[in-house]
Design goal:
With 227 residues, this protein is of the alpha+beta class. The protein has one domain. It contains seven helices and eight strands. The protein has helices at residues 24-34, 59-65, 90-100, 135-146, 172-176, 192-212, 216-219; strands at residues 38-39, 45-47, 53-58, 75-78, 81-86, 111-113, 118-120, 162-165. The strands form two sheets. It has a five-stranded antiparallel β-sheet. A hairpin with a 5-residue loop joins strand 1 (38-39) and strand 2. It starts with 23 loop residues before the first helix and ends in an 8-residue tail after the last helix.
């Protein structure tokens, strides 16, 4: 038929209208530079379970686990909480993994955000004069805000989230995220099992330390479990 559109033509996916609000620059960086999904409204939030899942742990516990992450593996910080980005699908595997590691019966301050979850978006890293992110400067600022990891992270829980280790562009993300071998982890990617075991152990130690610091009356009927 004359004037019909050829079957081989492609139609671009609809794009969200430009956001004139104060988060426009950050939203553009997340959606266009990184290919991450955000949701409308404020504060700016990222959708988990698509490109990544999140382990949300006490900053003190997360700081100890940083040695199990490659330098490009993203880590965010907000007050006393650290968010470790892991491979998509990890949140679903976490309960069974904790049981296998024999951490399942214990009450751990360890949360996972996966499919359908939302994470507050940290401010994008500062950009150099050439317009590219400057992760070294951003890490220095984040480390200062964090009180150099666990040593001084017991301060206020107020304040915006920051990138302790900002994400890299495109496919670099998947190559840096901790994953289980069965989940198709990229060769050389950090081991999710080792990371979870370390974080769980540190969460347990943090809980015991905080419990023992309470007055005796507050500790009554609180069972202690040692590993």
């Amino acid at each position: 038929m004359a004037g019909s559109v050829p079957a081989t033509s492609t139609v671009p996916f609809p794009r969200r209208p430009p956001d004139p609000g104060p988060d426009a620059g950050a939203r553009h960086w997340y959606e266009n530079d990184l290919g991450w999904v955000t949701v409308p409204g404020r504060p700016l939030r990222l959708v988990t379970g698509v490109r990544f899942d999140v382990l949300d742990v006490p900053a003190e516990a997360g700081a100890v686990a940083l040695r199990h992450l490659v330098p490009g593996s993203p880590v965010a910080l907000r007050g006393e909480r650290m968010r470790l980005l892991v491979a998509a699908g990890s949140a679903e595997e976490l309960p069974e993994l904790l049981d296998w590691l024999e951490w399942g019966p214990l009450a751990l301050d360890l949360r996972a955000l996966g499919a359908g979850g939302l994470m507050e978006a940290p401010a994008p890293p500062e950009r150099s004069r050439g317009g590219t992110p400057s992760p070294v400067r951003d890490r220095a600022a984040a480390a200062s805000a964090a009180g150099e990891y666990a040593g001084e992270c017991a301060g206020s829980t107020q304040g915006a989230a920051v990138w302790l280790r900002p994400p890299g562009p495109g496919c670099e993300l998947e190559a840096s995220l901790p994953a289980l071998p069965a989940m198709g982890g990229v060769g050389g990617a950090p081991d999710l099992v080792r990371l979870v075991d370390t974080v769980a152990a540190q969460c347990h130690r943090v809980r015991l330390r905080r419990l023992c610091a309470r007055p005796p009356a507050c500790r009554r009927n609180q069972p202690l479990a040692f590993s």
